[in-house]
Each structure stands twice: as C-alpha cells, then as structure tokens.
Amino acid sequence: MACLTANNGQLIVAQLLASELICTPMRNLVSKLQESLSSADRGWFSAAWQGILHVAVIYILARLFTPWLLDVTFSRVLPLVLGHPLGGNPLQFFFSHLLAFSFLPGLIAGFVNSKLFGNRVIRFVWLVPVAVLLFVFVFIGPGMYPTMLWESDFRQAFHYFFGAGFRFVGEPALMSQNLNDFVRGYAQLRVTVPAYVGVAYSLGGWLSLRIKKRTTRSQTIPKVVTQATPAN
User: Which of 13, 21, 187, 205 is the most buried (most CB within 10 A)?
Assistant: First the structure.
C-alpha cells in the first residue's frame, strides 16, 4: 500500500512538472501574441485580418511558388548552368530539396512584407501551419498512437514528415515502383512545407522588425544628444 502511495505521489509530481514545462512557455507566447494584437494600428480587428493575409501568403508560397521554383530550377536553371539537362527522375530532385526551396522564399517574403505592413503579428503566423503539422503528426503519422503516445514510434513518424532519403527510380510514369516514396514526399509537400515556410516567414518578419527598431534607435539617439547639447 505504501509503494502504491509513493508511486502515485511520483506520478502526480511528474504530471505537475510536465504541465509547468509546457504551460509556462505557452502562457508567455499567448501574452506576447496579445501584446502584438493590441498594439496594432487599428486594434485586434486589423491585426487579425493582417494575420489571415500573412497565413494566406504562407500557403500560396508553399502550395504554388515552391513547386514552381523547384520545377524551373530543375528544368531550366540547372541545365543552363551545367550546360546539359539533368538525368534521373525529377521527383528525386523535387522531394529532396523541399526544405531549401521553401525556407528561403519564406524568409525573403516575411522580411519584405514586414517592411510593407510593419505589424508585429507577423512574428506569430508560424503557429498556424506548425499546429496543423503537429496535429497531423500525432493523429495521422505512421507509428503514432494518439491515446498511447508513450508506445508510439516517433522516429518513424519523424522520418515520414521530415526525412529525406528518397529513392525514385525509372521514369515518373512508373508510379508503382515509387509509390511509397511519392506518398511520403506528397505528405511533406502538403503538411511539412507550409510549416517550413511559416517558420521562415515569421523569422524574416522578426529580423525586419529588429533591424527597423535598431535603425530607429540609432537615428533617435543623435537627435536627442543634439537637442540636449547647448549651443556655443
């Protein structure tokens, strides 16, 4: 009986510790989001609409621009640079470079849009695609058991949504030979790539706001010093 009481006490302590480790960062994130929304030019409504527009840009980049950029790079840019067309299955190049061809456009777009709009809500738009990815990872990912996470195969799910190592053989039309890799690559394109773009987009916006803040501060300090210095 004493052993059961001790085990229950340890379990309660572990649950409280896990709750504190998870809830404290989330509370801090929510408070920062509220601060950004309340500091928008016209309040919550304007910030919410700008957030929706930023999320729309993220998914346009992920679903349209990234595939187009990969196709143009494979079929036009690299053959022009190398002097000959690339061989092999184009899907091998396509799915093996999703991170690079999604992160960089997202970073640039976030930096530029932050300069245009200047709303600090851009720092938090990554939460939407990452939340979608997390939901799909836990509830649909291979090897995952949502009601028994401690028995789930996180390594298998992580490889499915983030891993490379694609092995496409033959022509693209021979889908029967490449079906497993194609399904995994398509899942990354639909779910993981928006998360890549979202994180890069918010990072680019944060960098833009940071540079703007430092520039404003560097311009303000000399003016204050000049005004405080008495004329000779």
Answer: 205
Cα gap 209→205, rounded to integer Å = 6
pLDDT of residue 204: 94
Token duo for residue 191: 């779910």
Judge residue 61's burial from the number of C-beta atoms within 10 Å of its C-beta, 0-12 exposed, 13-18 middle, 19 or more buried: buried
CA distance 126 to 51: 10
10 Å CB burial of residue 130 (0-12, 13-18, 19+) is middle
In this structure, is residue 6 part of a structural domain? no
3-state class of 149 per DSSP? helix
The residue behind tokens 């245009």 is 116
> Do the domain assignments include residue 24?
no
Q: Is residue 146 part of a domain?
A: yes
pLDDT digits (tens, 9 = 90+) for 69-94: 999 999 899 899 888 888 777 888 88
Question: Could you list the residue range(s) of the whole structural domain that residue 188 is in?
Answer: 54-221
> Where does the pLDDT of residue 106 fall: very low under 50, low under 70, confident under 90, or very high at 90 and above?
very high
Tens digits of residue pLDDT in 40-61: 445 677 778 888 899 999 999 9
Structural domains of the chain, count: 1
Length of the chain: 232
pTM for this prediction: 0.73
8 Å CB contact between 98 and 165: no
Tokens 């695609």 sit on residue: 129
